[in-house]
Amino acid sequence: MAAGLRSFKAACPVCGEIAAHTASANLMRVVCLNCGRFQLSDAALQALVRLPAHERELMLTKARQEAQGGESYPSLRAFRGAAARATLPT
Ligand SMILES: [Zn+2]
Q1: Dihedral sign, CA of 42, 44, 45, 47?
Q2: What ranges do the domains of the chain cover?
Q3: How far is ligand 1, taken at its centre, from the CA of residue 1, in Å?
Q4: What is the DSSP letter of 16?
Q5: Which residues contact 43 (CB under 8 A, 6 or more apart)?
Q6: What is the Cα–Cα distance from 58 to 86, expressed in whole angstroms?
Q7: With 50 as the cut, is the pLDDT of residue 81 above it?
Q8: Distance between CA atoms of 26 and 68, rounded to whole angstroms?
Q9: Residue 84: enclosing H or E segment and its boundaries?
Q10: Does residue 47 surpass a pLDDT of 70?
Q11: How far is the centre of ligand 1, averaged over its atoms, from the C-alpha of 2 (Å)?
Q12: Residue 1 pLDDT > 60, yes or no?
């Protein structure tokens, strides 16, 4: 484990189940049994936890689609929540 990384178990920010977290200065990597692997910044994490569950899952789905298997940890970004909302039927 490289210096500056912290590994711990905590609630998954998407589904709430206990998941493995690895935190560096401004990036959290999560490995969740339900959600798979993803990463997000502190800012994205703060935004994510305020979203309802279905929007958190939508952000994860979009991150996976954009990564298309090319990234081992698809990146969740805060703005995607708002973008997803704008395209949802009301
Ligand atoms: Zn999860």
Answers
A1: positive
A2: 6-85
A3: 23
A4: -
A5: 78
A6: 12
A7: no
A8: 24
A9: helix 79-87
A10: yes
A11: 25
A12: no
